[in-house]
C-alpha cells in the first residue's frame, strides 16, 4: 500500500512537527484535506484575487473554516484565541498552513499565488516557525515566491518585531502583503520602509467612497502612493457593481470580494477550472 501525501510529509518533517502529523490531517477519497485539532474540525476555503475585465485570477487567499463536529461553525478568531490561551498556537498554525497548502495544490495553476494570513502572536517566533513552513512548501515543489504572507495593518504598530519578521520572510523568498490597509490611514509613510509586494485596502475605505465623493477622489491618490512605494494594490471587500466601478476608476489592478466570488473549497475551484479548460480546448 502506497503512503499518503500526509504520511510522506510527516516522515520528512518529523523533527519539526514533534508530533504525529497524521493525527491532525486527513485526506478523503476525492483528494480533499481536512483537519482536526482539540475538537475543532478544520476546512479550507479560497477566495480569488482577480485582475482585468475578464476577472482572471492571479491567486487565492486561503481562509480557515473551523467548526465543532462539522455541524456548528465557529469564528476563526475565536479558535485561534482559544488555542493561544490553552497553548499550542505554533503547532496549530502549522496545521492550518499545511491544510491550506495541500488543498491549494489540488486546483492551482502554475502562475497562481497563495495568500496566507499570519497570526500576530507568531511574528516573534518567525525564525523557527518560518523555517518549518518553508520546508513544507519545498516538500511539495511549490516555489516560495508563489506564497504571499499577509500581515494586517495593525501589525505596523510593532515596528521592531515586524522588521525582524519581514527580514526573515524575505530572506526565505516569501512575498509580503499588508492587509486591511486604510482603516486608519496613519501608516502610509511606513510603506516606503516596508515596501510590501501587495497592499490590500480595507473594505471600509471602499464603502465610504460610495457615499462620500471626497473619499472617492482620494482613493486613486492612495493607490498611486502605494504604487510609488513599489507595491501592487488589492482592493478588498467589493460587494456591489457600484463598488467595482469605483475600483476600476481608482487605478488598482487587483480586486477581491463577494461581488466577484465568495470563498469556496478546493473542490469547487478544481471543478470550475476544469470546466474552463475543457471550454478552451473545445474552442480550438
Short description:
By secondary structure, the protein is an alpha/beta fold.
How does this structure look, described?
The protein has an 8-stranded mixed β-barrel, surrounded by 4 helices. It is built from 11 helices and 11 strands. The protein starts with a helix and ends with a helix. The protein is of the alpha/beta class and 284 residues long. The protein has one domain: Alpha-Beta Barrel (TIM Barrel).
Q: How many beta-strand segments?
A: 11
Helix content: 40-55%
CATH architecture: Alpha-Beta Barrel
Give the mean pLDDT: 85
Q: N- to C-terminal separation? A: 41 Å
Strand content: 15-25%
User: What's the shape?
Assistant: globular
Q: Enumerate the spans where pLDDT stays under 50 for 5 or more consecutive residues.
A: 278-284
Q: What is the succession of H and E elements?
A: HHEEEEEHHEHEHEHEHHEHEH
Number of structurally distinct domains: 1
Strand order of the largest sheet: 3-4-6-7-8-9-10-11
Q: What oligomeric state do these chains adopt?
A: single chain
* Major sheet attributes: 8 strands, mixed, barrel
Rg calc: 19 Å
Report the total helices: 11
The CATH class label is: Alpha Beta
CATH topology: TIM Barrel
The CATH superfamily is: EAL domain
Structural class: alpha/beta
